Amino acid sequence: MSTIEERDVAHEGSKTCTFRTDDIKNSAEFRAAYEFAANVISAEDQPFEKSPDGLIKHLVHEKMNTRECCVDAYMQFLDPGSRSGKHRHMWEEVIFVAEGSGYDLHWDLKFDCLDKYQWDWETEPKKFEWTRGDFIYIPPFSLHQHFNSGKGEARLIVISNRIVKSMGFNWLDQVENAPGA
């Protein structure tokens, strides 16, 4: 019995493609368009969205034609006594508290892959109090929700890395909508 060498099968097959050629063309088109992408986004050009998480204002988003290609950022508005929706996603978030005070509830992910992938979340949430000037960290795929317990509006600057989505982990689950959403 003879041993098959890699070189014996390297030229087998009849399928062709233009992947590399397309990549070169797409790269040139991206760089040409990048020259016209915005470095500064005025407050007037930052769109509002009535989302399942409540009222947000997009600061940087891939659909906004900015030079930023890795980060998404938005401002979340929470009225006194109100809350955001409850959701989870595969990317980390950092949140800067620009105004107000309140707390987060986080249901951390329990993960096991000894025999098979097993996903579960803590039954009791962890509570994290926050106030103006604080940063909040959201771990990947932790179920979380924001609450305004202050007397005035709370504004949260939510920042995340969109690269994780491009890596095949564009997992975003909305578990509960904000009031009025």
Structural summary, described in words:
The chain has helices at 6-9, 19-34, 163-166, and strands spanning 48-51, 54-60, 71-78, 86-89, 93-99, 101-107, 109-112, 118-121, 126-131, 135-138, 143-148, 154-161, 172-176. By secondary structure, the protein is mainly β. It has one domain: Jelly Rolls (Sandwich), CATH 2.60.120.10. A hairpin with a 5-residue loop joins strand 7 and strand 8. The chain is flat. The model has no long low-confidence stretch (mean pLDDT 93).
Amino- and carboxy-terminal Cα gap:
69 Å
Unreliable spans: none
Number of domains: 1
- Secondary-structure-based class equals mainly beta
Determine the mean pLDDT: 93
Q: What level of helicity do the residues show?
A: 10-25%
What is the number of helical segments per DSSP (H or I, 4+ residues)?
3
**Spatial arrangement of strands, main beta sheet:** 1-2-3-12-5-10
Cα gyration radius (Å): 22 Å
> Which CATH class?
Mainly Beta
What do we call the CATH topology?
Answer: Jelly Rolls
Q: What profile does the largest beta sheet have?
A: 6 strands, antiparallel
User: Strand fraction band?
Assistant: 35-45%
Name the overall outline. Answer: flat
Per CATH, the superfamily is: Jelly Rolls
Strand and helix order: HHEEEEEEEEEEEEHE
Number of strands: 13
Outline of the structure:
This protein is mainly beta and 181 residues long.
Please tag this protein with its features.
181 residues; mainly beta; Jelly Rolls; 6-stranded antiparallel β-sheet
SSE blueprint:
Layout: H1 6-9, H2 19-34, E1 48-51, E2 54-60, E3 71-78, E4 86-89, E5 93-99, E6 101-107, E7 109-112, E8 118-121, E9 126-131, E10 135-138, E11 143-148, E12 154-161, H3 163-166, E13 172-176
